[in-house]
Amino acid sequence: MLNWGDAGWVQFFSTKPVHRLDDLRKLKLFTWAGYPTEEDLWKANGFRVVPLASTDIVQQLETHGIEAVPTTALIAETAQIYKLAGYMCDVKWAPLLGATVVSKTTWERIPAAQRGPMLAAARKSGRP
User: Fold this and answer.
1) Rounded to an integer, what distance in angstroms lies between the CA atom of residue 113 and that of residue 118?
2) pTM attached to this predicted model
3) 21-52 pLDDT tens trace
């Protein structure tokens, strides 16, 4: 593991204002396809989920197939989601963290003289 990264808090971006959970329950909420347990948990709590691939988010917002997306502000801006879902609910749902991981085999293919500087650069880029 070369470093940890922080993409920010996951919040709900929506096509209509969301002030309370009941507001979000009325909207068609994106959830990742292929995770039936997550879908069942949302449904059990009264949410209207639409399981999709993440590549379908923008098109489904455009066609009103979904009305809310849990994502970070960074991703909402990068993917231009905020243009279609212009309301951000100020509830910090979960932090989105990641790591840069390189297999031992790949790491050992890098010349030894370059590993130290690469690791230092990775650690520096992972600092807040």
Assistant:
1) 9
2) 0.79
3) 999 999 999 999 999 999 999 999 999 999 99
